[in-house]
Amino acid sequence: MKMPVELCQVDDYEVVGTEDLGQDWFRLDIEAPAIASTARAGQFVQVRIGPGDIPLIRRPFSIFDVGPQPGADATMIRLLVQRVGAGTRAMVQLRAGDRIDLMGPLGHPMPRPELDATGTLFLVGGGIGVAPLYFYCRELVNESCAHRYKVLLGARSRALLIGLEAFESIGVETCAATDDGSSGYHGNVIQLLGDLLDQLPEGDAVAGIGCGPHGMNLALRKVAVERDLRFWISLENYMPCGFGACFGCVIPGPPDEPPRYRRVCVEGPCFPAHELPEQF
User: Fold this and answer.
1) In this prediction, what percent of the chain has a pLDDT beyond 70?
2) 102/124 same-domain check
3) Does residue 66 contact residue 39 with C-beta atoms inside 8 Å?
4) What is the pLDDT of residue 7?
5) 146-204 pLDDT, tens digit each
6) First-to-last CA distance in the chain?
């Protein structure tokens, strides 16, 4: 079986359009059939911003969606971009017909936990972490997934909730948690997860995948380990190269194994929670 990096494509592709989602968030649509047709949820692309070698280092972006449907016939990829610096400002200024240099898809797809029809899969996201979870749900909907899955999205306030309408539009059960109580559950998304877990009948099968800010990921790992749950966490580490050469995205290996470092870009970006140390 080939590693994802062996299947990736490197080329410049045509921008289809950019949509302003508010609060400095944008969706960038790119016609990239060589990437879209093979991409799976949880994988990412490395983006070169601007012509030439400035900036020199590519930037990683999780694939938010592919169109028109996930699978071999997909021709377009969509990226979720937060405008925070010079590079992302340049990206959101792209218009239809412009070109953008992409390398991908990279990384391993998110896992598919085995659950029976009564089990529940929790998908926990915050900030830019909602991107791979939306693509994951698109795949589940497209495959008519048999078991129950529920999306939990967290933010400081309603205005900062990203992707809520997108999940609801494809019929996914979605719950919001806001720190100020302006939408949904009053509290953070990990507290919401804990309350929902407590409400499940004893013995019900549970699994989950999370992706979000570092603090959320740390808290999710703690819950998963303490409750002995099958959870995976997708990491959003900065990846200078994206294919394992630079060792710029490493995290410590499993705490019960001999000391070593793992490269998030080629061994992840999704890892079982129990394999992550308390600090990663």
Assistant:
1) 96
2) no
3) yes
4) 76
5) 889 999 999 999 999 999 999 999 999 999 999 999 999 999 999 999 999 999 988 88
6) 29
Sorted by sequence, the CB contacts under 8 Å of residue 216 that are 6+ apart come out as: 124, 126, 129, 154, 188, 189, 190, 210
- Residue 40 belongs to a domain with what CATH number? 2.40.30.10
**Is there a contact between 132 and 63 (Cβ–Cβ < 8 Å)?**
yes
**Within 13 Å, how many C-alpha atoms sit on residue 81's CB side?**
29
Distance CA 212, CA 220 (A): 10
Question: Is residue 206 within 8 Å of residue 197, measured between CB atoms?
Answer: yes
Rounded to a whole number, what is the largest CA-CA distance in the chain?
A: 58
Q: What is the token pair recorded at 74? A: 């997909």
Question: DSSP characters for 162-205?
Answer: -SHHHHHHTT-EEEEEETTSSSSEES-HHHHHHHHHHHSPTT--
Neighbours of 54 (CB within 10 A): 7
Amino acid at 160: L
What pTM was computed for the model?
A: 0.93
- According to DSSP, residue 17 is labeled E
**Domain around 217:** 120-234
Chain position carrying tokens 């009053």: 186
Q: Taking the mean position of all CA atoms in its chain, how far away is CA 140?
A: 15
Asked if 89 and 131 sit in the same domain, the reply is no
* Helix/strand/coil for 131: helix
* Domain shared by 125 and 102, yes or no: no
Asked if residue 118 lies in contact with residue 204, where contact means CB atoms within 8 angstroms, the answer is yes
Is the CB of residue 264 less than 8 Å from the CB of residue 241? no
